Amino acid sequence: AQLKSGSRDLVGICCSFPGGQRYLGVGGGLGGAVERPRAAPGMWPGVVRLQKVWKSHENQDFFAGGCVVGDQSRLCWEDRAGEDAWDELRAEIPRLDARWRPAVMIAALDCADEANQQVCMDFRITGFPTLKFFRAFSKKAEDGIKIANPSTSVRDLRHSIITNLEQSHDAWPPACPPLEPASAEEVRGFFRRNNVKYLALIFEKSNSFVGREVTLDMLQYENIAVRRVLSSEEELVKKFGVTTFPSGYLLLSNGSFSRLPVHMEVRSFYTYYLRTLSGVTRGSYKLNMTSSTSNVTTASQPKHADRSKVYMADLESALHYSLRVEVARAGTLSGAALSALKCYVALLAKYFPGRPFVQTYLQSLDGWLRNWTEPELPRNAWKEAVKNKGDASHPAMLPTNVTWVGCQGSEPHFRGYPCSLWTLFHLLTAQALQSGPDKELPLEVLSAMRCYVKNFFGCQECAQHFEAMAAESMDKVQGREQAVLWLWSHHNEVNARLAGSDTEDPKFPKLQWPPPDMCPLCHKEESGVHAWDEPAVLRFLKAHFSPANIYPDYTESGTDLLARESREMGAAADARLSTNRPAERDGERAAEREKEEEEEEEKEAEKPNEEGTEGAVGAPERPGSSELRRPSIVRMNPKPRETEEDIVDLDSFSEQHFKSKALRAAAVAGRRRRLSKRDAVAPQRAAGGAQDFDYAEEEAAGDGLRRSQWFRVLGLGFSRVDVSLCIVLYFLSSMCLLGMYTFFRLRMRSRKGRPGFPTA
Ligand SMILES: Cc1cc2nc3c(=O)[nH]c(=O)nc-3n(C[C@H](O)[C@H](O)[C@H](O)COP(=O)(O)OP(=O)(O)OC[C@H]3O[C@@H](n4cnc5c(N)ncnc54)[C@H](O)[C@@H]3O)c2cc1C
């Protein structure tokens, strides 16, 4: 409320939070917004948890925004499109963000935008500009340290960041290299401790920032480390014969050294020279700088992927994310958004070539939506509808984890969901082509995609670009073949626009696709100019996006999925039992808790400035509010389920299906048997990798599971002492019966052996 509107100043707020790298949120750009995900245990509710930066080519003023992955410090800034002294600073911010990430991340929030009012109030932004620094592992809005007078110059901004970073002490961001001056001892043993080719030493006076800036500038480069050495470090100064400060020296792992041959002893010259050294490459940050950084594990295990294949894990992850996260963001769906959802789900039910239990899931969801005749669909009802159903005879399941294989980026913020969404829609256009006459419903898939992107896709920039392309030419598509080609060519347009941008994964450069090595026949030359051979492209697309080319690698089999879900339910039930509360009260409390959480979420959703959605999405939201419009498409980290659950909260079975352990065990055993049969008759992929169900393994695992389940059933309600007493009593009574039997047998024998009296 105290924020001045209309200021042309640069405004900043900043954030840095704990909690793992597995959620999305993007701030950034002019008027960018910071996502406020739902509260999760141990997580500050008003934060962005993962970010991806989207670049606009139209608007070069756009700069990076967004923040918050657990172990990184971040700065968030706000741009007010200034034409004054802020221009320089504004231009520097994306550069700094790109260079110093992941040690420091920078994001912007427009506090003059009414939609951000609540967030800015939470961050206590009372005027423009404000710059706040959040140390790594900060938990609350109040943890932000206001950087005094950030407006002086770009240089001051950099220095402020470094000074604050240095004061982090215990909260040192693990991805940040040491910034303190190196000692002679450290330099002596450096190559023994670090597997790099070069060590650059910047000799400088204690008040100089050059060494620290170069250290951060080189943070993303491999094979080289940078340290500052103070002019007071006599041993090193003498050893290297340093006479001017600053000056740079390069040490090689073989012990030789030389002075950096730079034209000027300044940061940019040092950085430029060091980056051009042979063997120095830009890569993920790996250097094990200090013992405290040794446990930096941010990226998931790289998965082997073949770009000529399509992976079911990507497709199912896209479905999970779109249905359970992206669509579920809105408090209520109505009007165009509800129609878009119905359209999208109907399309999936019709064309998605999923595993049997996924197809059942989509079909039942489609049926449910068709029966939903109310003008509004509240989020709670939707969340309930997208849960997996525990019906043993008819499993309707969609995996609840996100696993990127073909769409895995080289870093967590690359690729992922947007990649999988493209793949999904290419696949659907190809499936539609195979399933009906060319001229029938040519726009069926493209229109559904257009509506989905317009109403739900979290990246506003992307949605706008896509809508512009669609408005221009989509209605000219007259057949299903043309639809396949339209999507292909427009995807290539996007690839061309984004090539070389910040969003490009350096390991997966944006190419005109398919490249010649994937499809030589797709390319030709006409009058010395490259041209596409469209019939060949169409053939290629049909084959590439066909069910036969979908590989199940890294997917969880249906039986594993069931077992995992039941295990998790079991663990949850055990946890409740261990509290020694009567089961009924447990149930009541769980229900109460669930209700409270739902209400909490409802409240969150209804806060117009925090999670408001566009006009199409229900009554409580104001036009122009930004929930669905937030640029929030990001790579989600495939994390263990327990960590995801507290955020997405959608992947557990409903307890109500399984009131007792005994019922649950019986249900699991039943489901397992039936599912195995269903899957056995399910059409399998033609190519060799059909590893969905390894029956022998499943059976063995199943036996184990069943045994343990029955063991639990037998043990239900009895303590170990009870069971032992039963066994002892059983043994004693058996002995007793045996004794009686022996006694009577002996007696009979002795009677038979005695001579009888002659009868009269
Ligand atoms: C509708 C939409 C609009 C987007 N708009 C923007 C935007 O404006 N700005 C922005 O920064 N990001 C945008 N994105 C995200 C961006 O296009 C990429 O998805 C993201 O950068 C990840 O890129 P990627 O390298 O994984 O490959 P992607 O471009 O996502 O491609 C995914 C996969 O599809 C295949 N493929 C690539 N090109 C084609 C093609 N022409 N035809 C068929 N298959 C192909 C390849 O196998 C590739 O791995 C958009 C995404 C979508 C879904």
TrEMBL record:
Lineage of producing organism: Eukaryota, Metazoa, Chordata, Craniata, Vertebrata
Entry similarity comment: Belongs to the quiescin-sulfhydryl oxidase (QSOX) family.
Molecular function per GO: flavin-dependent sulfhydryl oxidase activity; protein disulfide isomerase activity
Function of the protein: Catalyzes the oxidation of sulfhydryl groups in peptide and protein thiols to disulfides with the reduction of oxygen to hydrogen peroxide.
Cofactor(s) required, per the database record: FAD
Coiled coil region boundaries: none
Segments of this protein annotated with the region Disordered: 568-645
Entry's transmembrane regions: 727-744
Keywords from the named record: Disulfide bond, FAD, Flavoprotein, Membrane, Oxidoreductase, Signal, Transmembrane, Transmembrane helix
Pfam families: Evr1_Alr, FAD_SOX, QSOX_Trx1
Domain ERV/ALR sulfhydryl oxidase: 410-513
Designated name of the protein: Sulfhydryl oxidase
Biased composition annotated in UniProt, kind: Basic and acidic residues: 582-594
Catalysed reaction, written as an equation: 2 R'C(R)SH + O2 = R'C(R)S-S(R)CR' + H2O2
Enzyme Commission number, as recorded: 1.8.3.2
GO CC terms: extracellular space; Golgi membrane
GO biological process terms, semicolon-separated: protein folding
